[in-house]
Specification:
- The protein has about 170 residues and is mainly beta.
- An 8-stranded antiparallel barrel has the order 1-2-3-4-7-10-11-12. Strands 5-6 form a two-stranded antiparallel sheet.
- Pfam families: PagL.
């Protein structure tokens, strides 16, 4: 089996064996406001330093508006989460101090947008890359994160104005 097929199989099997969450958020930047909703799945991968590394995938829709212009975005984002927790073999669960679990996350993946312009920005193609990095804290089934998101066609077509935003993201783990 080639590497792309193995990666696709891994991503498609994620919802069956992983933790899932609902993601809602909003933010703004580069003269635009953005609103986000999606589903994410993640699976514990390995202990690393003082925490645990998780891999996952998110499917989300976003609405961006600037001046009298707007666009819709659909994304599929493979992600890595680093949670400052450790796995207790004795108790068969992840443990953390005081109920608060800080985390870091990063991801990049393909996106589709409904139009190629947003205000004065020319994104040139409907195919884009959506990338994000964030820092947050989880308590029980809830988490809150500050995330930087960037949307760009990666230089596939010029001009490549791209757009970035800072977002507050809430997640509820099922």
């Amino acid at each position: 089996m080639n590497k792309p097929s193995l990666f696709a199989l891994l991503m498609l099997s994620m919802p069956v064996c992983a933790e899932s969450n609902l993601m809602l958020g909003a933010g703004g930047g580069d003269g635009a406001d953005s609103y986000h909703a999606g589903l994410e799945w993640r699976q514990a991968w390995r202990s690393l330093g003082s925490g645990h590394l998780w891999y996952g995938v998110g499917i989300n829709g976003s609405y961006w508006e600037s001046d009298d212009d707007d666009l819709m975005q659909l994304s599929l984002i493979p992600m890595l989460h680093y949670r400052f927790e450790h796995y207790s073999v004795e108790h068969h669960r992840f443990e953390h101090n005081g109920g608060w679990t800080p985390f870091l996350l990063a991801g990049v993946g393909p996106a589709w947008i409904s139009q190629t312009r947003l205000g004065s920005r020319d994104l040139s193609s409907r195919f884009q890359f959506s990338s994000r990095v964030g820092v947050g804290v989880a308590v029980a089934h809830h988490s809150l994160a500050l995330e930087g998101w960037h949307l760009s066609n990666g230089g596939i077509k010029e001009p490549n104005d791209g757009i970035s935003s800072w977002n507050i993201i809430y997640r509820y783990d099922f």
